[in-house]
Amino acid sequence: MRARLFRSFPRCHFVSAIQFKGISTSGRLYQDITMYRFAKAALNLSGQSARQLAVRQKSDLSTQFHAKYGPPLLIAGATFCTAVWAYVITSTGITWNLSPVGKVQPKPWQEE
């Protein structure tokens, strides 16, 4: 069975190069295939577990939370952001890189 699994997966040049150097990859490839089968089996939901998952997904707790706390959180966040930027602009002493157009004049040309 193990040999049949390896024949179903094409080997690329990288794998061939690793095998040419004498590093065995067959054990790692078998582990990857086993892990793939395990994940596939874990995701195969039975009918009852799928219904339970659907019931959990239709919970209205998040809609109640957003309806109750959404606008105050949005207002508080906007106020905080505005206050932080007002502080940064006015009080930190950062020299902003404004446009030098009209402020920088070329030096006069000097003939030698």
From TrEMBL:
It is found in: Mitochondrion inner membrane. It is a single-pass membrane protein. GO terms for biological process: mitochondrial electron transport, cytochrome c to oxygen. It holds the Pfam family COX7B. Keywords: Membrane, Mitochondrion, Mitochondrion inner membrane, Transit peptide, Transmembrane, Transmembrane helix. Pathway: Energy metabolism; oxidative phosphorylation. One of its GO terms (cellular component) is mitochondrial inner membrane. Belongs to the cytochrome c oxidase VIIb family. This is Cytochrome c oxidase subunit 7B, mitochondrial.
